[in-house]
Write a structure and sequence with these properties.
The chain is α/β, with parallel strands linked by helices and 276 residues long. It has two domains: 236 residues, Rossmann fold; 38 residues, no CATH class. It is 39% helix and 22% strand. It has ten helices and ten strands. The strands form two sheets. The protein has a six-stranded mixed β-sheet, with helices on both faces. Strands 2-1-4-5 form a four-stranded antiparallel β-sheet, with helices on one face. Helix 3 runs parallel beside helix 5 and helix 4 packs across helix 5. Bound molecules: adenosine-5'-triphosphate. The site of adenosine-5'-triphosphate has 12 residues, from helix 1.
Length: 276
């Protein structure tokens, strides 16, 4: 099995002494869509910041695409792993949208025509064409978030890491972002998302990692989000579909539905049985 991320016994304390990570062991499959879930303060952001070397391991090790995360590999790591912060205002700072998205590729000294090509493609991917000359400051929050994503996409990272990409986005921007992420994943890139949104994780991810109190509590397919033990220990909630189907066990199902269409089909089958 090929892994995009391999973490062994990672521990990390912040400068004020807060022990944010207390021995994380985790492997994330290459090409997967992985959701990292956990309550506030669980250590998700601290973990993500280790994936592109913003934080370096104080104890244990982190490898991305086989590369050890350490100071010597810093430049390669930043090219391999693109990190989109929770708040776009921590990331978007240039005078125009175009300059902002071009900033990363220019910093890697790519030729001018290659920079132009990448910026154009990244802006197309996040559907921000036509806003190239706007000041990011004059855009909406959701649009600034997409500028931040485009800036990372323009670096063509093999692993894309997003911290709470849905925070403060309206429902249509959320589903648009989901399509953008799926498009990037279909090119074979690994996508890792930290989120509080269990419904999103249940529907979108093919691997779910639950972090609590600086440790990995559980990892597996999205169906782990229907397990009592996992939900009780993690302080998360069941996804809405799971909540609904747990209340009507008489519908009868072999496997808890993961998608609305699947759930609708089960209900339809049950109604037909009743009618006949
Ligand atoms: N820069 C920092 N300095 C000191 N403590 C920090 C810092 N950043 C995070 N922490 C602490 O480390 C722990 C883990 O925080 P982290 O932000 O990684 O959690 P999280 O799971 O991302 O939380 P949330 O879901 O609320 O964003 C928390 O106790 C937090 O207060």
């Amino acid at each position: 099995m090929d892994y995009a991320v391999e973490i062994e016994d990672l521990a990390f304390s912040h400068k004020d002494g807060t022990r944010a990570l207390k021995g994380i062991n985790l492997r994330i499959k290459k090409g997967s869509k992985t959701a990292i879930l956990g309550p506030n303060g669980a250590g998700k952001s601290t973990l993500l910041l280790h994936l592109n070397g913003i934080y370096l391991p104080q104890h244990g090790r982190v490898r991305v695409m086989g590369l050890e995360v350490n100071r010597e590999n810093e430049k390669k790591i930043r090219q391999t792993v693109g990190l989109v912060f929770q708040d776009p205002d921590d990331q978007v700072f240039c005078t125009t949208v175009w300059e902002d998205v071009a900033f990363g590729p220019m910093n890697f000294n790519l030729p001018e025509d290659e920079v132009q090509r990448r910026v154009k493609q990244a802006l197309r991917a996040v559907r921000l064409e036509g806003l190239e000359q706007k000041m990011p400051f004059h855009l909406s929050y959701g649009q600034r978030k997409r500028v931040a994503i485009a800036g990372v996409l323009a670096l063509r990272p093999e692993i894309l890491v997003l911290d709470e990409p849905h925070a403060f986005l309206d429902p249509s921007s959320k589903s648009e972002l989901m399509k953008i992420m799926d498009g990037i994943n279909s090119e074979g890139r690994t996508i890792i998302v930290a989120t509080h949104d269990v419904d999103f994780a249940y529907e979108w991810a093919d691997d779910v990692v639950i972090i609590k109190d600086g440790r990995v509590l559980a990892q597996g397919g999205p169906d782990i989000l229907s397990e009592d033990k996992v939900i009780n220990e993690s302080e998360l909630e069941y996804p809405v579909l799971v909540k609904l189907f747990r209340k009507v066990p008489e519908i009868g199902y072999d496997k808890m539905p993961q998608f609305v269409d699947e759930a609708a089909e089960l209900i339809r089958q049950k109604l037909n049985q009743v009618k006949n």
